[in-house]
Amino acid sequence: MELKEFAQLVKSMRENQKEYFKTRRPSAMYASKELERKIDKEIIAILKPQEQTENELF
Questions:
Q1: Terminal-residue alpha carbon distance, the chain
Q2: Between 20 and 30 A from 53 (CA), which of 19, 31, 36, 44?
Q3: Buried b (16+ CB within 10 A) or exposed e, 42-55
């Protein structure tokens, strides 16, 4: 995933979070949670190669 796509994903998540806290609509909560899961997966994918490289050094 490109940096711009990741930033858009984070922006969408934040918009849904703000909507949820403003309206308390369950649909906004579910949408933000789904986006959080996608972001978490991307973070793992981004950091995993770095962690493997660091572990190989020792």
A1: 29
A2: 36
A3: eeeeeeeeeeeeee
Query: Measured between alpha carbons, how far is residue 47 from residues 4, 16, 28, 30, 42 in Å?
Result: 17, 25, 28, 26, 9
Residues 6+ apart with CB under 8 A from 6: 39, 42
In whole angstroms, give the CA distance from residue 54 to residue 9. Answer: 28
**HSE-up of 33 (CA within 13 Å, CB side)?**
7
Q: Look over the chain and give the mean of its residue pLDDT values, rounded to a whole number.
A: 90
Model pTM greater than 0.70?
yes
CA distances from 57 to 44, 48, 52, 53, 54 (A): 20, 15, 9, 7, 5
